[in-house]
Design a protein that fits this description.
The chain is of the alpha+beta class and 332 residues long. It is 52% helix and 17% strand. It folds into two domains: 112 residues, no CATH class; 130 residues, LON domain-like (Archaeosine Trna-guanine Transglycosylase, Chain: A, domain 4, Roll). InterPro entries: Lon_prtase_N_sf, PUA-like_sf.
Length: 332
Amino acid sequence: MTISFWFRKFLIDRKYKKSRRRTMAKAKDTSSAQNSSTASFHLFTDLHEDLKLAILSFVADAPFESMPENYPKSSLTHTLPLVSKQFRVFCEEQSYWKAAIERQFQKEPFLWKRALHKICDIAPASKEAGTATAPDLVEQAAQALQKASFKALYKKIVTDHIRFKGPVFFMGGQVQLGEPYALHFFEPRYRVLITEVMRGQPESAKNGGRIPHPALFVHANRAPLAPTTPATIVEIVQCQVYPDGRADVLLLPTAYVWIEKVWVRPNSGHLYYAQCLRMGQSVTHSMNQLSRQETLTNVMDMLAGRLDNTDAEDDTEHARQDDDTSSDEDSG
């Protein structure tokens, strides 16, 4: 081997060693910086409790606040309580939960303001409903629960107003909010549905009379019957139950929902149950528009089909007349 070969090899090795030393030095500096940052975190424990609470408030979000939208996990329920016992106590801080309700009130009044009105027994069209501020409504709702716990209030709103659990009627079709429609229930599982939903109502309500208490269930009008599929909460506004369990019902769609969970209730003749999450205002508006467009498309398709059938009948009639004319000419 020549001297030039060994010289080039020496330069390459030297360059590699310098590069490796620089990389290791950079990694060491980064590690030192991280250790320094970690080591300084112990100062947090020396802060006054009010300061700790103020700092954590910047990351203290409640369920359904964080992205992706409608995500049920949050820092207050699934992250911060796991850090330490002190953090677990901090997560019960009422100011965090009150602030979370007020944020949700501002973000989605379509759901949260309505829920607070129901808890406070305030009519939506009343003067009080139009003038009450978020803090006032939150305070009033917490007092209405007879527990001054904003965490309990948050949980009640989610459990009883944002979420819905109930039996499922599974059949495709277009459903629009505020547009009533009639159905006849005859399958055994839907006889069970009617029995359960109408339980507690007076006998007159089961014979076409007024239904004093809301009778609600889920109409899953889109496939598949699975999580993330949109569905509709419907209210029975008129009901006629027959001795064999069949029923004629008039239904009013009241809310669009996302299906979260689906299961079959044991000993129910394969009746599905679902846990659902109500849609916000913008998505509800989009769903209603989609339903109208689908309904219009179906009507146009039906009319087009009738026109095609009419044209086919006319062609058949003309052909028959032509045949009759030809027969007459041949006879002549």
